[in-house]
Amino acid sequence: MSKHVLGVYHSKDEVIQAIEEVQNEGYSVNDLSILANTRDFPYSIQNETGVSTEDLGEAENTRTYKEKGFFENLFSALEVNTTSDHNEISYYDHLVGLGFDNAAARDYEKDLNSGKILLLVDSGTGTFTAPSAGGITGTSVIDQTTLDTDTLGTNKERSLKLREEQLDVTKERVQTGEVEVRKDVVEEQKTVHVPVTHEEVYVERRTVGDAAIDDTAAATTKPIGDEETIRVPIVEEKVEVTKKPVVTEELVIGKRQATETEQVTENIKREEARVETDGDATVDETTIDRNRLNEDRL
After folding, report:
1. Can you give the residue ranges of the DUF2382 domain (predicted)?
2. Rounded to 5 degrees, what are φ and ψ at 5?
């Protein structure tokens, strides 16, 4: 199966980023492969992404001497005589064996010899414009056989999708605190004024007249000197204090939802189109609101 170049990249990070973006577009790692200078190629890319590395030995055997042609074999032989590095002279044959034309194979061979990394995709897996990681221009997934026919007379419209990052805000319930309500016994001194009564004995001395003396003497038969005692009981109120618990207050404990607005700030990326002209080229740039256009059609 022939392959196409998705992009040419300078570093490991650029390749990994491009692979992630391609996977987001629906490509499988089984459809992708990497071709790079084996002297400088970081094999950690294969370990991190799962994308396999092109085996130059297998590609060398995919095309026979007759399939390559006389001039192609002659040029390959000249390369063998001018360099002793097997990896460098096999890039061209490998790319041609993958279905690239001679010019494209030469260009990509120069990229590989300069330390760049090619990201390849199997043909027939769809059409995709490769991301330009770090400013490195990616190659569109277009059949190599149609490149020569993409001439100045082509009026076909092409589209370039611009993407931007959008914030996806989610919420989760986490415990940030705890309220504990309990009862403590507090002792204090309280004074109560209680009115109490008690009995007191009073003695009044009264003067008795002569007539009263005669009547009293007549009524009294006891001789003077006999003892006579009067006992008067005295009663008073004593304060007795007792304590009993009574309910004076009730606490109702519950939870309610309180809503507040929290501000979240994050940096997001977006793609912007940059139109560059060369020479006398003019560009008529307009903006079309497709949603409103569809509404007008309805």
Report:
1. 160-275
2. -90, 120
pLDDT of residue 127: 52
Q: Which residues contact 42 (CB under 8 A, 6 or more apart)?
A: 12
Mean pLDDT of 226-238: 88
Reference 118, options 96, 97, 102, 95; nearest CA is 95
DSSP 3-state of 9 = strand
Q: Quote the distance between the C-alpha of residue 264 and its chain's center.
A: 12
The residue assigned the tokens 């992708």 is 32
Closest to 185 (Cα-Cα) out of 132, 245, 225, 233: 245
pLDDT at 238 over 70: yes
Which residues neighbour 48 within 8 Å (Cβ) at sequence distance 6 or greater?
A: 16
Range in 17-21, 148-152, 262-266 with the lowest mean pLDDT: 148-152
Q: Quick one: DSSP state of residue 40?
A: T
Measured CA to CA, the distance from residue 25 to residue 34 in angstroms comes to 18
Domain residue ranges in the chain: 3-149
% of residues, the chain, pLDDT over 90: 21
The amino acid that residue 3 corresponds to is K
